[in-house]
């Protein structure tokens, strides 16, 4: 190893110290929060029937685990989310491509797309249950409604804002429209598409939970709804914590994919 | 001299909701094989429209364009390099061959040879962001040459560059065009550039454009564009063309 200047050593030390400080406070905040919560519960400062406590949440977690229910609830939520994520991505890419291809269709469909995107989809919940039925399909349908329109709009906006100068260049080389599409539009919108994956996974999860709150027999949304109906706050909070972990893991996986794709790019 | 392209009574009108604009009123012109012809004219006089029509990007409103060669290929070099940042230098140069379905080992090797010959050999597998403006523009020229065009259209190819780079690049581009034996139509608003590079200069009027005058450029001791600027006729042409352009602000 080569020897560095004193200044470089100081630079490295400073960097290391900064990282330790960040990590320390990240852990300290959660420990402090959980500690205060637990202490207030034990000392009787708060009513654990209404606000639960970390130890009770842990108890609920382990009893769910022992009943073998935990993983199946998590799995059903993840499964519905992934289906909605995949399908809305395919539909989003497909529709965005068609709209890019034909400006007239894009103009015709524009107001409908805007309405469908801005409409609070949860308002359609009761209709979906009546039309699709009280089952998993209606949950996935709900999630699709929430994630698809935003996907279409984001990808289409990316497609049409491709530098027109690049398009002109390909035209000077006599490129056909399909060639412009796969040689320019798709590769130049790689970042848009990856960003879309991130938004899409969050939207799908929101949709699935919304669907599960309305109609379900399994899943984290069901646990939350069930818990609140029987006034089991421990169960509600346990489910919310689990949901947080699930959403973080899914987001983390997408970020890894993003890093990999961008690495290949440069 | 052999004529490669004849333009007769060309006319171009642009339409939009507000009305119509006659960009080109009437242009008739013969382009000779292997000549470098410069087109100068006031801003917005329809120079770029002319190139767009020649390369089939836009439709003409009236007139005739006749190519005196079968299956003629036109290469168009734009003002900005438009290199795709996600493609290597070589892949950028190959894109024309790709879209024309003429990419094979032989044509690929030809592009690699061109890159090597014109000083870009070590950058073949680099990405455009590691190149300077002048080099990027040279890559853009080789990308245009990759499809082996018969006529090169150059739309102010140096205008996005700083002064020193454009002087030295115009020397390079001149050398490349003459070495490869191409016919080239250069659109520029830099009179010095036009006189030092070209064999003929066409002066267009302000919009709607007509051909105001055509100059044959004869310079004593004609050599590279930078050297040509020292010829004694250079200033005479410059003066004359400046007066033709009749620029009023």
Strand content of chain A: under 5%
Order of SSEs of chain A, N→C?
A: HHHHHHHHHHHH
| Parts with pLDDT < 50 across at least 5 consecutive residues of chain B | none
Any idea what the CATH superfamily of the largest domain in chain B is called?
P-loop containing nucleotide triphosphate hydrolases
Tally of structural domains of chain B: 2
**Quick one: how many beta strands of chain A?**
0
Overall structural domain count of chain A: 2
Q: Going by CATH, what is the homologous superfamily of the largest domain in chain A?
A: MetI-like
Largest sheet of chain A: none
Proportion of residues in extended strands of chain B = 25-35%
Instruction: Quickly count the helices of chain B.
Output: 8
Return residue spans of chain A where pLDDT drops below 50 for at least 5 consecutive residues: none
Structural class of chain A: mainly alpha
Mean pLDDT of chain A, to the nearest integer, reads 90
Write down the CATH class of the largest domain in chain A.
Mainly Alpha
What value does the average pLDDT of chain B take?
89
Question: What attributes does this structure have?
Answer:
heterodimer; A: 266 residues; mainly alpha; MetI-like fold; 2 domains; 12 helices; 0% strand; B: 249 residues; alpha/beta; Rossmann fold; 35% helix
């Amino acid at each position: 190893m080569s020897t560095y200047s004193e200044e470089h050593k100081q630079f490295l030390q400073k960097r290391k110290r900064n990282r330790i400080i960040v990590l320390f406070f990240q852990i300290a905040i959660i420990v402090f929060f959980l500690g205060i919560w637990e202490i207030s519960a034990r000392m009787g400062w708060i009513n654990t029937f209404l606000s639960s406590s970390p130890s009770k949440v842990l108890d609920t977690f382990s009893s769910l685990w022992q009943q073998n229910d935990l993983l199946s609830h998590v799995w059903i939520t993840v499964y519905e989310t992934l289906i909605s994520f995949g399908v809305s991505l395919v539909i989003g890419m497909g529709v965005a491509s068609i709209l890019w291809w034909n400006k007239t269709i894009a103009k015709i469909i524009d107001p409908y797309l805007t309405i469908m995107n801005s409409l609070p989809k949860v308002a359609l919940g009761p209709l979906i249950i009546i039309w699709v039925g009280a089952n998993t399909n209606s949950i996935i349908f709900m999630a699709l409604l929430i994630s698809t329109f935003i996907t279409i709009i984001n990808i289409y906006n990316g497609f049409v804002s491709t530098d027109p100068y690049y398009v002109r260049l390909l035209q000077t080389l006599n490129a056909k429209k399909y060639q412009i599409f796969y040689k320019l539009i798709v590769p130049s919108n790689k970042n848009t598409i990856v960003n879309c994956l991130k938004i899409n996974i969050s939207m799908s999860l929101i949709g699935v939970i919304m669907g599960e709150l309305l109609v379900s027999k399994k899943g984290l949304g069901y646990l939350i709804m069930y818990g609140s109906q029987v006034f089991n706050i421990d169960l509600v909070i346990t489910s919310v914590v689990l949901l947080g972990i699930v959403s973080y893991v899914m987001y983390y996986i997408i970020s890894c994919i993003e890093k990999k794709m961008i690495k290949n790019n440069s | 001299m052999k004529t490669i392209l004849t333009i007769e009574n060309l006319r171009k009108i642009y339409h939009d909701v507000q009305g119509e604009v006659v960009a080109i009123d009437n242009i008739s012109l013969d382009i000779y094989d292997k000549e470098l012809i410069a087109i100068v004219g006031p801003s917005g006089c329809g120079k770029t429209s002319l190139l767009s029509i020649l390369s089939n990007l836009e439709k003409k409103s009236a007139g005739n364009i006749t190519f005196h060669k079968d299956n003629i290929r036109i290469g168009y070099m734009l003002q900005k390099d438009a290199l795709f940042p996600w493609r290597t230098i070589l892949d950028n140069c190959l894109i024309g061959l790709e879209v024309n379905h003429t990419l094979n080992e032989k044509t690929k090797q030809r592009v690699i040879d061109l890159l090597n010959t014109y000083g870009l050999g070590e950058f073949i597998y680099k990405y455009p962001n590691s190149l300077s403006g002048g080099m990027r523009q040279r890559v853009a020229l080789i990308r245009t040459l990759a499809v082996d065009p018969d006529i090169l259209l150059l739309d102010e190819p140096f205008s996005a560059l700083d002064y020193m780079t454009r002087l030295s690049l115009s020397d390079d581009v001149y050398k490349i065009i003459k070495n490869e034996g191409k016919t080239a139509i250069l659109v520029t608003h830099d009179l010095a550039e036009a006189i030092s590079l070209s064999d003929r200069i066409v002066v267009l009027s302000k919009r709607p454009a007509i051909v105001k005058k055509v100059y044959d450029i004869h310079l004593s001791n004609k050599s590279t564009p930078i050297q040509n600027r020292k010829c004694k006729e250079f200033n005479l042409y410059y003066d004359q063309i400046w007066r033709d352009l009749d620029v009023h602000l």
